[in-house]
Amino acid sequence: MKIAEALLELQENIEKAERAKKIILDGSYLYLLRKMKKEFEDTKEKYNSKVKLITSIKNEYATISKELKDLTTKIEKDENDLYNNSGSDIKAINALQNNIKNNKNKLKALEDKGIDLLEMEEKYKLEIELEKAELINLKNNFYSYKETTAKKIEDGKIELENINEKIEMLKNSIPANYLELFEGKLKEKKQAVAKISGGSCSGCKMKVSAMTMDKIAKKEEIVTCDNCGRILVKDDAIKLKEAK
Questions:
Q1: Does 127 lie in the same domain as 41?
Q2: Rounded to an integer, what is the distance from CA 10 to the centroid of its chain?
C-alpha cells in the first residue's frame, strides 16, 4: 500500500472512530427515555384517576339505590294508607296524596341521576380500557427503545475497539516523518488527506497545477495540494480506469 493511500485509510478510520464515540457519548437517548417515562406516568395518573372516579360512582349509585328502595317503600305504604286506611278524612287524604306526589318526584329524580351515573361509569370504563392499552404500548416502547439503545451503544464500543486497533496498525505501518506530517495537517485542517479527481482537490475544490499532476503521475510517495496543502490521493474511480 502506498503511503498516501495508507494515510487516507488512517484518516477514514479516525473519522469512523469519532462517529463511534458520538454514538457512545450521545446523551439524547436519556432525554427520550425520560420523556417516554413521563408520558407513561401521566397516562397512568389519568388511568388511576378514572379508576377512582368509577369507585366513587359505584358508591354514589349504591347510596341512590338504597334511597330508591326507601322511597319506594314509603310510597307503597302511603298508597296503602290512602286506599285502605284514610277513610273519608280529607285532611289525611290530601297529606297522603302530597307525600306520594313528592316522593314520586324524588324517585324520578333519583332514577334519572342513577341512569346518568351508569352512563358515566360506562364512559369511564371505555376510557380506562383505552388508557390501559396505551399504558401497555408505552411500556413496551420504553423497554424496546432502551434495549435497542443499549445494543447500539454496545455495538459502538465494539466497533470503536476494532477501529482503534486498525488505527494503531496503520500508524505502525507508516514512517514516522510522514505520520508527523499527517498529524500536523489533520490538526490544522481537520482533514489531512484529500482525493484528486478531474484535476481538482476534494478538500479545497480548487484545480491543482500541472506540476502537481505530474508528480502524481510519477507516483511520488507524498504529493500535496498547491492551494490547501493537503496530501493528495487519486480517486478510486481514476485508478480503476487506469488499471483497465
A1: yes
A2: 36
